[in-house]
Design brief:
The protein is mostly beta strands. Helix content is 0%, strand content 55%. It contains no helices and eleven strands.
Length: 114
């Protein structure tokens, strides 16, 4: 089994910052891609950012220049640094890892408190 434990969500005013973490454990062989997705009420889940094992990154246009994804392969952990947060960033954020199968975290809430 594979477990993903997310942390770092919370309530923050517009313009503030948060850092999300997601640690994978269990039957980890080699994680190819790690990523963050989000789902706001009434919306479909959308990709926020992904990072390959070699460090190649991709971002949704809506977060480019504000969010930064990184990973620590030795710790099987992926991070999402979120700066200049906007009200429209409010959502449940899910981490995802791709090995033979896709695995999802339980989600962590990010809320605009403005």
């Amino acid at each position: 089994q594979v477990q993903l434990v997310e942390s770092g969500g919370g309530s923050v005013q517009a313009g503030g910052s948060l850092r999300l973490s997601c640690a994978a454990s269990g039957r980890i062989v080699s994680i190819s891609v790690m990523g963050w997705y989000r789902q706001a009420p009434g919306n479909q889940r959308e990709v926020v950012a992904t990072i390959t094992r070699a460090g190649g990154t991709n971002y949704a246009d809506s977060v480019k220049g504000r969010f930064a994804i990184s990973r620590d392969n030795a710790k099987n952990t992926v991070y999402l640094q979120m700066n200049s947060l906007k009200p429209e960033d409010t959502a449940v954020y899910y981490c995802n890892i791709q090995m033979t199968f896709n695995y999802w975290g339980q989600g962590t809430q990010v809320t605009d408190s403005s």
